[in-house]
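For the sake of transparency, this paper describes our internal protein records without simplification. An entry from our holdings is shown next, in its original layout:
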Amino acid sequence: MSSRSASTIFGGGFDIEVKEARIRTIDEQAGRPGFWDKNLEAQALLKEKAQAEQTVASWRKEKRAVEDAGVLLDLADEAHDEASRAEAAQAAAQSAQAVAAMELARMLSGPQDHAPAIVTINAGAGGTESCDWAAMLLRMLSRYAERKGFEVELTDFQPGDEAGIKSADFIARGEYAYGYLKAEAGVHRLVRISPFDAAARRHTSFASVFVYPEIENDIEIEVKEADIRIDTFRASGAGGQKVNKTSSAVRITHFPSGIVVSCQNERSQGRNRDLAMKILKSRLHELEERKRDAERDAVEAQKKEIAFGSQIRSYVLAPYRLVKDHRTGVEKGNVDAVLDGDLDEFVTAYLMGVRNPNRPAD
């Protein structure tokens, strides 16, 4: 690799000049009288500036490292110095990995990507099979969130009639939780020999996943008392005798939007009510964002019918073992690892915009 080819790792995708111009603009705004009159907007601008400065500094550091490695490699080639050539190649490879991580971080620059994620899982048609599959998805996504270092809080759990779950909600809190987990939104398809079929036949099951950003408390979403109904009931999931014997669970129905939110994880009815209201406001905020922004319409379009032909990923356990993402073409044969939360390869490909060449354009 020459010094010229080394520098091609940096193709300008980070828009460094644009970021530097933005930093200067924010500096100018911060120096004007009245900048702090709108405290929240000022804080948001300074946070944007800090992130841009970090990106620029990291970009320049790795660019210098790759260029230095390229020069060293040119000198090693001239001197036929294998040790220097190996050192330069290793340094360039390390910088290339750092650039790849920066590129992924650039994909997590959406206005809500930094927010906690509210994940909703629903079983599709198919009775016990789909309910069991939904429970498997709950475990897979929870494990993935834990692997990323996110705090996971189960907020609602509706068990299936015989096994698994009809639906479940959880909140994942951590750095870029929504940015990562939004890659899992869509319909997931499972093909396996059914453990519930006495004839041991192969079954296909579907379950859906949708992901919302949890909005900050400082974002004002008005919920009028006349627009909601609050019901209390006994929790149906695990949680101890007190949870199951008292009407601590809360369900909020928002009439204008038709949104229904349940929360039964906490022992306190008040805590469940507060958490359910927070989730409702998050969903209402997301609804308003979709109305104002065409990109939000695209996100909403991912909520397809939970059936064949609309899946984003297939998990095949029989007659062979393979997980395939239909959006990116990424495949993994270690199905057990994937179901245990090993989703990084799928998520990264989605965030980087890798498209399956055999998949038609949306």
Observations:
- The mean pLDDT is 82.
- The domain at 3-107 is CATH 1.20.58.410 (Methane Monooxygenase Hydroxylase; Chain G, domain 1).
